[in-house]
Here is the input.
Amino acid sequence: MDGLLFLIFAAIAVVSGLNVVLQRQPIASALSLVAVMGSLAMLYLLLGAQFIAAVQVIVYAGAVMVLFVMVIMLLNAGRERPAGASLMASTLGLPLLAGLAGALGYVIFLAFPDPQPVRFGQFREGGAAQVGYALFTRYLLPFELTSVLVLIAILGAVVLAWREVRK
Amino acid sequence: MEYYLISAAKAAILMGGLLLTLLYLQWIERKVIAHVQVRIGPSRVGPHGLLQPVADSLKLLLKEDLVPPHANKFLYLLAPFLAVTLSLLSFAVIPFGPEIEVLGVRTRMQLADLDIAVLFVLAVSSLTVYAVVLAGWSSNSKYPLLGGLRSAAQMISYELPLALAVAAPLLLANSLNLREIVERQDGFYLGLLPRWNLLRLPAPQLLGFLLFGVAMFAETNRIPFDLPEAENELVAGFHAEYSAMKFAAFFMAEYANMITVSAMATLLFLGGWLPPLPARYGADLLPPLAAAGTGALALYHGLHPARPRDRRTLPAAAAAFFALALLLLLPPLRPLLLPPFWFLAKVGLLLWVFMWVRGTLPRFRYDQLMRFAWGFLFPAAVLNLLATGLLVALF
Here is the structure.
């Protein structure tokens, strides 16, 4: 059952991920990305991380991607025309991709030599209380630093937009 | 195996009740608005227009199913499907009552008892904006597009104060589980005032409830926040190009969303299925009294000589209400019927407020709508959350 659910949602994630790149219509790409986010949330849920799964849907699918879709609609972006692929991209692209995937697989295999499948319901430390406790004790500094980083990014965006308004 | 059977039975009961409510909510709304405007409302099809929803659904079912030629067909068909699915999904985690025992089987009056139920509802409701946006975009027509854009901006803006207003009672309850949130509102102050989050010490959520109430009107695109479908500007907004059952799907989703937000307000602020009075002041007698009173009222009007047309229908309704009152008095049925009665009464009251407001308030202008969200609602919700956090931490 767990394995079947994992395969279903992993397959949806991979196929939608490919679809993001292959689709010519920007809005179809954006929606495929939503599907990727949704299936990743399901995978988190299978791992027992309820809180992360819900937040994944709320933040990525519910907020970030809605803004993407809205901007695409506002700009009324039409179909993308394929740019003529360069000689290097068309000849070396696939071999390089295969090499990268192989290297990544090898590194992951070295890091986790004996992987065990996680059974649904086995891990119960993924609730809101546990995540909150970890964030405010062990990971307090990285958590606060990330929020400062996000604040800086927002300020930067405001400054850039303000300059354009002034002109 | 037993678990699956019980779940299937509960899901069937929930879906049946829900679909019937969705069918008749629209009849009730038309009647309420008609009486606000000193009209009678639907009265031709069946007694008091009671078969009007059936006639409407038949009409929508038998209508030709059109797809506009320039629409993006896949997304055009996906949008109403998404709208209905997402709006019905939230009901899976909403508790209607405590644990009960039916025919020797103990079960909860709830489909799924999630530890993150509040987040689940927020996540599902944050996805509903896709249905509206996709419907507007895929119709490939200017009014739906404008309606879809407006709606996206509005729903994103009002989701923030809504989520912040939800967070404050969560601080009081110290849980994200809807069942636990309700159970922690049990009890009374001074033996009289309910310990609902609305009145809960140390931080009564009166302001929070108001903020949630305003934001829930905006989230469901209802008057006075129905800018996405402003008839005089946008024809019908995002669903202008939809007809037949696809149009009905959006309609159904809107009503289902209304029920969801009303249920959330009831669970978070109004104590869910808990009675408003202690049992020793007769809380258990109030529901049968209310049913019997309604029956007496119907009987009086049915027998009144000035209403010859209602001579048969109103006494029949009166008999039904008297039967309900008797059922509510039967001791073995009381633990089964009273909690859902209180829950549904509170949800029904909030739904009636939706209709009342629709009958009385005009629509906002779009800039007023946005200024209200960011200039007043959002800061007020932040202040409410900070004050609640401070009070909870101090006491």
About this structure: The radius of gyration of chain B is 22 Å. Chain B is about 65% helix and 5% strand. Chain B has a mean pLDDT of 85. Residues 8 and 111 of chain B are 9 Å apart (CA to CA).
